[in-house]
Automatic annotation (TrEMBL):
Pfam families: SWIM. It comes from Amycolatopsis xylanica. Residues 364-405 form the SWIM-type domain. One of its GO terms (molecular function) is zinc ion binding. The lineage of its organism: Bacteria, Bacillati, Actinomycetota, Actinomycetes, Pseudonocardiales. Keywords: Metal-binding, Zinc, Zinc-finger. This is SWIM zinc finger. The keyword Metal-binding applies.
Amino acid sequence: MSFDHTHRYQGASSINDDKLLLSTAERGGGHPEFFSGRLTSPAESATALLAVAEVAGKRYYTPPAMLAALRRPADPVVTSDGERLRFESFSACCGVYARYDLLADGLDGEVHGTGTTNVDVNEPLRKALTRVGAAGELRLHVGPDRMVAVTGEEALIEKRVPLPQRWLRGFAEVQAASARTSPRIEVSSAEAVRFLRGLPRHSGRAPLWAVQAGSGLRLTSRPSPRAVCLAGTERLRGLLPLLRFVRGLVVHGPEVDANSQPAPSVWEWRLSTGRVVLALSPELSRGFSGEGGVLSSLSAEGLTDDAELIAALRIGYDVAESAYFPRELPFDPAKIESKHPRLKHARQLVAGGLVRSEVDGTAYVRSGELEHRVTGTRCTCQWWTHHQGSRGPCKHVLAAKIYLRGGPMQQTA
């Protein structure tokens, strides 16, 4: 399922006379013109932008049920905060999040405004980006008007761009997962290049773990303190074309020990005028959209009236600066709950009178023929037993939370 938005593009994205013209979607009757000017590291920027676009076209895992219903890749989105540009995408399986931060040092021009929009990165543009050299000048115009259209034609192009609901959930889940990480490993450009070049093309379904080894990195099969999970080495190998621009690598992950389960990881590749960030889900078969890390927040009463919570779902998290950044996502707050089945089912359980509690706060939730015991964030259901809370709360924990917060207390002996 996806949110279908009809976007009008002034023209196709292209490169013409060393000028990179990124066609963006109109909003409110006009084009969102974010930036126009020269890029100070043209080859680096072209390669990084291409890397983000390539992730959007990749699928690293395909459930058998989806083999007959594959969708076209979605377009990357670009956000301007008035100082930099951030290009973002997800892989088709939603297990890889990619972002290119084009920082102020990489922009020699004028930032016209702030906001978020889709960017048309078409096949001719992808091919042209691979031919950009360091010696030439590359100018970026995000939000072209009629004066800079490549052909000079003014005809608008209708293009229906599906923005998958998985992306909308994924954006929220990635920022939640990223905010729980810390820098665990940092290596030089030479060690980063050596590590990436040495990765196997495929590592199988079992996640590996990256650990610091002297001044470099090595992979192991078991977690340990300060190790970072790496599920699917092929998900990093897509950055091989970027290696000549890498100035260093910082790997971020949550705190783990010898008994830890697979966890998300964030790989920050530092460039001369920007950085490319890849966030990887804990396992190849897990997309960020299904992690459920924000479900507890979404279960709050009065969600659609809570401006702060809605804003929180529109932000990203920058691990390099340990700070959040704004992003304008095109979703209807009133429809948020319908995009999270666990939350929807939890409210149905409460509304159906299937939740009761004891004076100590222990809740019992009936689902089908079974009654599950909920204590805090733990549940006796099979789903929770299998995931142990690693993919957010189950519907029974959510139902208990909603009930204990606002429902009538039904005390039992």
